[in-house]
């Protein structure tokens, strides 16, 4: 709700926004069964990863609340705003930091760019389920074949 009234600025002050969302906008969180926060970002937060992870783990403890991150890696040299972030990290370091934060919040991490999807917890989960189904199918086929040979 409050996000709609914000204007785009150059800050990556993730902790300030997260505190606002959790401590102010989710004050009625006990009335809801499941809630999620979605962070759409192109870079690393200003604060250290361990600080954010510790806060998230504590703030979300005992709640049915998850933090999901969608990291969009912009092609180098396309920052049209001219804003230099207070903290720099490579795309891989940024992804690693957000994966750690998301794990502390029992959320999901998705990393994509103009070239496509680099990593996605949802896709990894789907592939895992497909592998399990394939293995189960192969075991069933082997069992059926061995029963046919006994007859």
UniProtKB/TrEMBL annotation:
<protein>
    <submittedName>
        <fullName>VWA3A protein</fullName>
    </submittedName>
</protein>
């Amino acid at each position: 709700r409050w996000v709609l009234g914000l204007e785009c600025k150059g800050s990556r002050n993730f902790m300030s926004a997260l505190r606002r969302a959790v401590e102010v906008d989710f004050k009625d969180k006990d009335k809801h069964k499941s809630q999620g926060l979605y962070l759409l970002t192109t870079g690393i937060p200003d604060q250290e990863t361990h600080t954010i992870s510790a806060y998230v783990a504590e703030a979300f403890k005992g709640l049915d609340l998850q933090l999901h991150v969608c990291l969009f890696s912009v092609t180098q040299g396309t920052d049209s705003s001219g804003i230099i972030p207070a903290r720099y990290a490579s795309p891989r370091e940024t992804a690693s930091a957000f994966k750690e934060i998301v794990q502390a919040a029992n959320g999901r991490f998705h990393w994509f760019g103009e070239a496509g999807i680099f990593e996605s917890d949802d896709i990894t989960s789907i592939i895992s389920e497909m592998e399990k189904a394939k293995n189960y199918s192969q075991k069933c086929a082997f069992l059926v074949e061995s029963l046919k040979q006994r007859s």
